[in-house]
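A common beginner's mistake is to predict each chain separately and then try to dock the pieces by hand. The better habit, illustrated here, is to supply every component at once so that their relative placement is modeled jointly.
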Amino acid sequence: MFNKILFATTGTPSCDAAARVAFDMAKRYSAELIIINVFGVPSRSFSQTVTDIRTGDEVDLHDDQLEKVKNELEKTYDQQIKSYTSCETIITVGIPHTEILRLARKKECDLIVMGARTSAEENENSVNRHVVGRTLQGVARSARCPVLAIGRAAASFWGGISNIVFGTDFSKASDEAFKFAFNLTKTFNGSLHLFHAIDISADPFEITKDQDGIEDQIREAREKIRSRYLSKMEGYSDYEIDVWEGIPYVEIVKYARESFADLIVMAHHTKKMDPEKAVLGSTVEQVVLRSNAPVISVNHPARQKKL
Amino acid sequence: MSQNILCTPSPVNDKEALDALLKDRRGKQYYDEMTRLEVDTAALRKLLNDTCRSRIRTWLEICVRCGMCADACAFYLSNEKDPKQVPSYKIQSTLGEIVRRKGNVDNALMRYAMDVAWGKCTCCNRCGLYCPFGIDMGVMMSYLRGLLFSQGFVPWEMKIGSGMHRIYRAQMDVTDEDWIETCEWMEEEWEDDWPGLKIPVDKENADIMYTVNAREPKHYPEDIAEAAVLFNIAGENWTVPGKGWEETSLTMFAGDWEGAKLQVQSVYDALDRLKPKRMVVTECGHAYRATVLEGPYWTGQKSGKTPVETLHYVEWVAEALRTGKLKIDPAKKIKEPVTLHDSCNYVRNGGLSQCGREIMSYIAEDFREMTPNGDHNFCCGGGGGLNGIGKYRKERNDGQKVKRDQILATGAKLVVTPCHNCWDAIRDLEETYKIGIRQSFLKPLLLDMVVVPEHLKPEKE
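With all components supplied together, the output reads:
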């Protein structure tokens, strides 16, 4: 199902849940696991010093340092590495999301697994705890393969998959996410929950006054799901269609909980130009942070392995 | 003869020597060896005889130590007017001594000269503007750096930087393959939002050949994609060379005259090969100085100019806005107060101060000038290679106080820095002094507000 899984980690406890999933999946699908740790970001211009992502310290870039970080990381995942031989550890420096995407492209990975926030952000104030790591944002937006993000420990058990929630905003990227979700459902012989949330947060006073209007929108959305997706499901019968109204990420999280979702599949396609909006994070990012199920984001047809 | 392994007068020409230097953590062994590095006085005397011409000799002699240059220097002002930071003193006590003693100087003087040439001067050339005799200390400092490099008295990072250029023809270990690969990657990654986006490599007879700073493929590849999008929107017929794509020159900062010539020649060779109408240089200051202002002389161009007309990125942007190739959506102009940092290398030394102002008039609603600005602007504090030299970090940070106060006085939180070095320096300044500012290149700002023609937009869903 997955041949090459790239697990991007800071090596801190915030990535433990993601590590559990990455190793579990690699074992389950006999995939090659590549672990990447971008331990320092370039600083001081062209110099040989980088800023350590975990500590904020200025460290020097030399072979011994790379070796030291590698040893530390392999020690962190000692048990898991011992139990699974087909893995490779890559330590590098740079802008984290750039280096993760560069490696995923070079190695032709078909899944990227990562945690949802960095430890540095965890150390900061409570607002930051709810802003998904910029790295995940950068990776999920541009990756050519699905990105599995683990926000909470509860979401880290990749076991039997029977209930898959596909959240759609009817975008082109969502079509790709649908293909992936449907293929996955077929593979697991599971149940596909096609879901859309009508966003009433944007214009609360206009819309909420008019329940008829909301219900019209719900009917339209259900119709759209039928025409856009059901037609492509080759008669597969184990599915459900639901459309709720509210704040999309809240509704998706609630819906996933009620449908006992084992996995949420969504598209993360916004190339947000407005920094204000980017700070709040997109729906996907909020779902990752809040959901008890792992979230896979899919944007692109390329490198999406046939299941 | 000294037994030095890492710190020698020989430049770094192969990967083995480069790796050995890189392994030496923070140049510990390198600087230790430097204390035992012998000065080859005969060679130094010969070099002086061959290269120290009447201009520099005259400048050294006619300087009356009037001190008019003192208040022009950011280091003097940032260091509580320490007399040892007066530019005239800095050059007379180093290059002046070497010339007066005809090269008969010792290790201690050479090391002192190194500390001054890289740790107390960014070659911003501001002092030259205020000298009643027009003595240009920045030019003399650059010359001094050449003398020091020839004897091996050069900061560790500069020796590495010069070696990188000699081996990779780039300031970092980015090969031509890495470069082309990065262009392909960016095309792929950005094509969803910009259908049909191409970064044409090695296209002959294009209107523009675009060249970059190696830090872009190395760490900031989106910068290349942003440039491509803007060229695309402007409808330019452009290309990047597969070889000779790197404009920067740590060799120039290092005083490695031979390496500087090799580097710039690689760009001119690309011009010769691809025959573009014009060349555009990315948002980098010293790259412009090396390739456009100094390069023609290093390579003996009879015209004193680059083989084809060359524009700094700000010149291209100003032209594109003026001619309407790029149109700004008035609703998306920068609303918050914003200031502009002038890069010494293409503003004071390249005469491009008006370009920045012209651009700001199109993109900002509340543009606030620093005081002084334009040709008289102060250096970011990290020029001349100082940004990257660990040994002089304190000197760099202290020297940025003037720039910090200049920015604070504008009240702007956003500093536009169309230069890689300045961008880095302003970021570091924020890290050191925490004054709540952020810095940006022009490209991402322009992308946020430029009007995109219908045919370049992604298909509607």
